[in-house]
Specification:
Shape of chain A: globular
Shape of chain C: elongated
Oligomer: heterotrimer
Structural class of chain C: mainly alpha
Largest sheet of chain C: 2 strands, antiparallel
Distance between the termini of chain A: 37 Å
Order of helices and strands of chain C: EEHHHHHHHHHH
Radius of gyration of chain A: 19 Å
Structural class of chain A: alpha/beta
CATH superfamily of chain C: MetI-like
Order of helices and strands of chain A: EEEHEHEHHHEHEHEEHH
Distance between the termini of chain C: 8 Å
Number of strands of chain C: 2
Chains: A alpha/beta (257), B alpha/beta (327), C mainly alpha (287)
Strand order of the largest sheet of chain A: 5-6-7-3-8-9
Number of helices of chain A: 9
Helix content of chain A: 25-40%
Radius of gyration of chain C: 22 Å
CATH class of chain C: Mainly Alpha
Largest sheet of chain A: 6 strands, mixed
CATH architecture of chain C: Orthogonal Bundle
């Protein structure tokens, strides 16, 4: 298995007034293998979202190195930076704010298609992508408010896949959806990951979902990695105190044998 | 539910809520019946569009503009809610019937210190000197396990974390020693660790103060920790109601089965449980069984709207109760 | 979410009532009139034609619907021309202010902290700058006339709007769809045009109409002082200034011009309010 992502000593500091410095991400290092689903678990303030934004080239790290498929997005040349955006894409948490309410679904997906290098018929490509995420072609004419939350997330996934990325960052992709619909999106991500050979970074606060979804996981707390490894193991025998609290607090639905 | 205990503090019979739209009236909740006894916890479980929040607001007389009670009865402490005047409601809310909401930031006034808000609430209903009200406020903050309460009463809401704000909300809700507490998704916006603490707190308070708790949530895991009885709502009606043990051991309604399937933890690598399709909007509910379009075991009979059947202990609204099973 | 029960039936186009569109159309027409007055001198005889034998004729005199002024000019035409000029200047100033405000506001709000700090200084200075002083200075440099007035009003007017735009942009830029676009590799400029501008359009329309009202009053004031439209170019301010001297013999120039000014400002404020209500995002596309 080749290594897809390597993060070394990544730090993000925010300077709030009066000498306060907030270390949102504090010396984080980990590696992700190509083709695996890698989980990042944490609660609010853990730094997981800041970490994701640094990976996506939205926020500049204070220090540290990132290596995504051979490219460091923060030291890259202009051409490499453009190429980077085709390597790594994102699905955000909130299906309501992740698409422009004034644009039709087709245009939203087209925004992604236009960035992909292979010159092809845009309309056909939109149709293909919508099909990939299980949406009928006629949805391209609709506006976001006409779709349910789950359907919007599918559109977000279609837009992300338009550039044929190698890495997909899913930032709490189902937290804002109804429980009975989460499975649809989670299974879709798992299927796409398998079919397209994606590397998925799955960010969540739900250890239960991460356990089922990911091969490896890091647990973040206040900017640092407190524990990492196999999700099942962490679930059954957490080593660190914070992880123990997290596991104990995760509500479990009792199922009759 | 047929014969309801008249002495239960909260009795809801056949509640029918509607909303006025440009195209006429739209049903939001139909045929909802349940009761809440002191010292017990009832969980109203549902997803978006189930009508669970509106039902709770109806209990408090706080329905939003445009939404009205078109049928059914709500009895609060023996009196029908339709009999209550505005003054009656003011005397009831906060004192015997209290509610906490999902977002403590919008429920607490950001311009005032939290202690002052609790003191205001107390002094509005009871004729006691402010100093005494303040002592009671400190005691309340202690009761909800806020450390260093004497200092914290001087804090503004934005200076406190989400979990602390929610505890303050609970303290304010309990300030006048209500008998019934309605909690509308109070932990949904909180971290998992904070959520566990709040759920444990409310459970402890329920036992200590003999509170009747109506807990509205979409999270079955929370239900498992806290509820005595569980009522599952789908598209504006109750589809199943039974004890906590029964609902997880022998769920009868396909929707409940699907919910449990979606929410439970499975072995790694297995696909996630789900229910196909999405929740229908009010106004677009099917004529027959509202869950039929998404139901794996739907048949011709499901064109007929099913009635609530079964004993008091376990009620189901389905033509084929128990047929859907967990894999 | 509670929806409004039964709204009274008002025909609408694009969510804005037909009435408001009608009013906007009228103002559009008047602006065209103003443009003609200023740009087509060959027609000017209509409102500059003097007739020294028929001075101070009251309204409803033979052949003169609104009478004549001190130089015997047909006041109906003169007033119409003056209104047209005022509206035209108003539209021009509003458009320039709004465009400048949008560009600078987006720059301040979206292009980094240094850009924000720098533009804030410029905005503060501009906002505080008195437009009358600038008009006088420009009149001194360019010679008195409408060019000086338009420049003066535009160069001071954009600052308030830039502030508003900056505020909107600060919240818009946090939306996930803006981030998603950046993650796709689009430049900030592209994202601004594609995602920020369309969402700024409602507030822009509302403020543009409001600025028109402000500009019309300001131009009237400056013309009244003699800094704006120079005779024989008609303008409401000029008419008021001239009419003031002959108030004893002819009340109608002052009353009618003043009345026209007041009504226009009232109507524009009404349109601005109406637009804001209709374009309220809560009534818009969201569920």
């Amino acid at each position: 298995m080749t290594q897809a992502i390597e993060i070394s000593a990544l730090v993000k500091e925010y300077h709030l007034g009066r000498g306060h410095v907030l270390r949102a991400v504090d010396d984080v290092s980990f590696t992700v293998q190509a083709g695996e689903t890698f989980g990042i678990v944490g609660e609010s303030g853990s730094g997981k979202t800041t970490l994701a934004r640094m990976l996506l080239r939205l926020v500049r790290p204070t220090s540290g190195r990132m290596d995504v498929l051979g490219v460091d997005p923060w030291q890259a040349s202009r051409a490499e930076k453009t190429a980077y955006h085709r390597l790594m894409q994102v699905v955000f948490q909130d299906p309501y704010s992740s698409m422009n309410p004034r644009m039709r679904i087709g245009s939203i997906v087209a925004e992604g298609v236009r960035r992909s290098t292979a010159a092809r018929d845009t309309a056909a490509e939109i149709e293909r992508l919508l099909g990939l995420v299980g949406l009928p072609t006629r949805y391209a004419q609709l506006y976001p408010h006409q779709l349910s939350g789950g359907q919007r997330q599918r559109v977000a996934i279609a837009r992300a896949l338009a550039v044929q990325p190698k890495v997909l960052v899913a930032d709490e992709p189902v937290s804002a959806l109804d429980v009975s619909m989460r499975g649809q999106i989670l299974n879709l991500i798992a299927d796409l990951q398998r079919d397209l050979g994606l590397t998925v970074l799955f960010i969540s606060h739900d250890l239960g979902v991460v356990r089922q979804m990911c091969q490896r996981v890091i647990v973040m707390h206040q900017g640092r990695i407190v524990e990492q490894g196999d999700p099942s193991q962490i679930f059954t025998s957490p080593q660190q105190e914070y992880t123990r609290t997290l596991v104990a607090s995760t509500p479990v639905v009792p199922v009759a044998p | 539910m047929t014969a309801t205990a008249i002495d239960a503090p909260v009795v809801v019979e056949d509640l029918h809520l509607v909303r006025a739209t440009a195209r006429g009236t739209e049903d939001l909740v139909t045929g909802l019946s349940f009761e809440l006894a002191s010292g017990s916890a009832l969980a109203l479980v549902g997803e978006s569009g189930s009508g669970k929040s509106l039902s709770a607001l109806a209990l408090m007389g706080l329905l939003p503009a445009g939404v009205t009670v078109a049928g059914g009865r709500i009895s609060l402490f023996g009196r029908p809610s339709t009999d209550l005047t505005k003054r009656d409601w003011r005397r009831l809310r906060g004192t015997r019937l209290a509610m906490i909401f999902q977002d403590p930031m919008t429920s607490l006034d950001p311009c005032f210190k939290v202690g002052d808000q609790i003191v205001e609430a107390i002094c509005a209903h009871e004729d006691i000197p402010r100093a005494e009200a303040r002592t009671r406020a400190i005691d309340l903050l202690d009761q909800v396990k806020i450390a260093d309460a004497t200092r914290r009463i001087h804090a503004y809401p934005h200076e406190l974390s989400g979990g602390l704000r929610q505890r303050v909300m609970i303290a304010a809700a309990l300030a006048l020693r209500p008998e019934i507490l309605i909690a509308d998704e109070p932990t949904t916006a909180l971290d998992v660790t904070t959520q566990a603490a709040i759920v444990a707190l409310v459970d402890e308070l329920r036992r200590d103060l003999d509170l009747g708790v109506l807990w509205i949530t979409h999270d079955l895991g929370v239900v498992a920790q806290l509820a005595d009885r569980v009522a599952v709502l789908y598209a504006g009606e109750m589809v199943e109601c039974t004890t906590r043990e029964e609902i997880f051991r022998r769920p009868q309604h396909p929707y409940t089965v699907g919910l449990i399937d979606s929410a439970r933890v499975r072995e790694p690598g297995l696909p996630f449980g789900l229910i196909a399709g999405s929740v229908p909007e009010p106004g677009a509910w099917p004529q027959g069984c509202r869950f039929a379009p998404r139901c794996a075991i739907a048949a011709d009979e499901c064109q007929q709207h099913p009635a609530l059947s079964g004993q008091q202990v376990h009620e189901v609204r389905c033509h084929f109760p128990g047929k859907a099973v967990l894999q | 979410m509670a929806r409004a029960a039964r709204r009274p039936f008002v025909p609408r186009y694009l969510g804005v009532s037909v009435l408001l569109w009608g009013l906007l159309a009228i103002f559009g027409l008047l602006a065209v009139v103003g443009w003609i007055v200023l740009m087509v001198p060959s027609l000017s005889t209509v409102w500059t034609d003097q007739s020294l034998r028929s001075t101070f004729l009251p309204p409803f005199s033979e052949g003169y619907l609104l009478g004549t002024d001190n130089l015997g000019r047909n006041f109906a035409w003169r007033l119409t021309a003056g209104i047209g000029v005022s509206v035209f200047v108003g539209v021009l100033v509003a458009v320039i202010s709004v465009v400048l405000g949008l560009v600078i506001g987006i720059f301040a709000g979206y292009f980094g902290r240094a850009a924000d700090a720098g533009t804030n200084v410029v905005i503060d200075v501009t906002w505080a700058f008195p437009e009358i002083l600038l008009a006088i200075v420009l009149a001194g440099v360019l010679g008195p006339g409408l060019e000086a007035v338009i420049l003066a009003l535009s160069l001071t007017g954009w600052a308030a709007f830039a502030r508003i735009v900056r505020g909107e942009v600060l919240s818009l830029r946090e939306r996930d769809y803006v981030a998603a676009s950046r993650v796709l590799g689009y430049s900030k400029v592209t994202v601004s045009v594609r995602h920020l501008l369309p969402n700024l359009l409602p507030i822009t329309m509302v403020m543009a109409v409001y600025f028109m009202a402000v500009a019309i009053v300001a131009e009237a004031g400056l013309s009244f002082l003699g800094l704006g439209a120079q005779p024989p170019t008609p303008s409401l301010g000029g008419i008021l200034a001239q009419g003031r001297d002959y108030l004893n013999s002819s009340w109608w120039p002052v009353v009618l011009a003043g009345g026209a000014l007041s009504i226009m400002v009232l109507v524009l404020n009404y349109v601005s309010d109406g637009l804001r209500d209709h374009l309220d995002p809560r009534r818009g596309v969201r569920r």
